[in-house]
Amino acid sequence: MIEVDSDNDTLCYCAGTTRQQIKKLLDDGIVDVDRISRITGAASGCGGCEFELQQLIEEHG
Ligand code: FES
């Protein structure tokens, strides 16, 4: 299933972290991959979402 709402779709399938959760942290000034990972669990499993997480952070910058 492909989610169309890009703000609500899952970024990390291991932790079930959504892009919206990540963006909220970015808006709060948390722009560090390790911190985001510790808070949301994103990129702490298979690592498959790490590249996309990095991209989100860069886009935000
Ligand atoms: S999908 Fe994010 S760590 Fe596996």
TrEMBL record:
Residues 11-59 form the BFD-like [2Fe-2S]-binding domain. It comes from Methylomonas rapida. Pfam families: Fer2_BFD (PF04324). The lineage of its organism: Bacteria, Pseudomonadati, Pseudomonadota, Gammaproteobacteria, Methylococcales. InterPro entries: BFD-like_2Fe2S-bd_dom, BFD-like_2Fe2S-bd_dom_sf. This is (2Fe-2S)-binding protein.
